[in-house]
Known about the structure:
The structure holds two protein chains of two kinds. By secondary structure, chain A is α+β, with helices and mostly antiparallel strands. Chain A has two domains: 4-132, Beta Polymerase, domain 2 (2-Layer Sandwich), CATH 3.30.460.80; 147-189, no CATH class. Chain A has helices at 4-16, 39-48, 107-118, 148-155, 168-176, 182-185; strands spanning 21-26, 29-33, 54-63, 68-77, 82-91. Chain A has a five-stranded mixed beta sheet, covered by helices on one side. In chain A, strand 3 (54-63) and strand 4 (68-77) form a beta hairpin. The longest helix of chain A is centred in the N-terminal third of the chain and has 13 residues, at 4-16. In chain A, 19% of the residues are buried. The mean pLDDT of chain A is 87. Chain B is an alpha/beta fold. Chain B has helices at 4-19, 35-40, 71-83, 94-99, 130-145, 151-157, 159-169, and strands at residues 22-25, 51-54, 62-65, 89-93, 121-123. In chain B, the strands form two sheets. A three-stranded parallel beta sheet of chain B has the order 3-4-5. A two-stranded parallel ribbon of chain B has the order 1-2. In chain B, helix 1 packs antiparallel against helix 5 (130-145). The chains are: A alpha+beta, B alpha/beta. The A-B interface holds A 132-135, 137, 141, 146, 148-149, 151-152, 155-159, 161-162 and B 71-72, 75, 98-100, 104-108, 110-112, 115, 165, 168-172. The structure holds iron/sulfur cluster. The site of iron/sulfur cluster (SF4) has 12 residues of chain B, from helix 4.
Amino acid sequence: MELHKEKQLLETLQGVFQLKSGEIKRRHRIEVEVEKKDVVPLLLFVKEKLGYKHLSHISCVDWIEEGRFELIYMPWSHQEQILIMVKVSIPRDAAEMENIDMIWRQANTYQRELREMFGIEFPGFVGDYDFILEDWEDIPPMRRDFDTEAYVKDHYFERPGREDAKDVRTEIAKRSGEQIPDFAKKYSR
Amino acid sequence: MNDKNSQKIVDVIKNFARKHSLFVLAYGTGCGAIEIPATMTSRYDAERFGIRGAATPRQADVLLITGYLSTKTLKRVIRTYEQMQDPKYVIGFGSCTINGGMYWDSYNTIKLLDMYLPVDIYINGCMPRPEAVIEGFIGLQKLIAAGKAEGAKKYKENLDWYRANQKKVIKNWVMPDYNW
Lengths: 189, 180
Ligand code: SF4
């Protein structure tokens, strides 16, 4: 398979920026990792000079063991048909990232979501208020140190009977005195 | 009109009328709302049982909770329910309303609907098919005919208990008080 478009793009980026790593994942997709200070210049560069007009997503991974969040910006070019995954690590305890909603307006929505779900602050953007969750008081729920089960236990009621995970078929049969034929037994737990 | 027997007759007539005109609020949460168009339209044709849609809470008799409720939606649902006029009934749809379903460990959906709203009848399934939905409606009609669908009364009488549960998950309670 010819990957020369992807190779060319990677070489361009390597020429202009100091990449921590750069890799061609497959056709139509490359992955680069940069320092925090290079993110905005790189995004501006690919948008203005290379025609990556579309920001498909900003995603986040919580590397709790390493004490960092990894943000992944994904600009896409309709002409080149390539998705660049721009990775950047930010420290977990001072989670702050530059606001890019003047480059792409849709970034505002993603940033609001990241702010709410991971607690990453983007100083200076409009939208630092509730997004999907309402009146949330705990730590941001998508952080890995948020204990969902404990939260559920002390905020919501639980219907008794879930914990033993009985087989529905056999329970109903028992209740109504019905015989389950032998061949069907192997399908019940 | 004041003696017991004539009141009974009035009740029978009232319940008969109520059970044959269930106006369902056109409101859906969760996955289940997708079964409602199928139930209402020509294939399953719920209108032959007197079940039809109503546009606003004040015109509706039945509130369908068609699946999981996030706490954010719960706030709106409570407000909707309290705006509805008597007689009013609540149907809980699918396992999410019964015991949390597959959202049993989700941080922002409630697990037991009947702790927050008085549910008259549950329909199980994930998602219940239109047949099951109609079955559930018929179950509700039977309850109404027997005069046992008294969720609204229960809600009024135990309002404090419901309010306490509701306020447990809705932190910022800014809602009007209705005096039905
Ligand atoms: S019971 Fe199943 S279909 Fe219904 S809302 Fe829950 S997950 Fe969706």
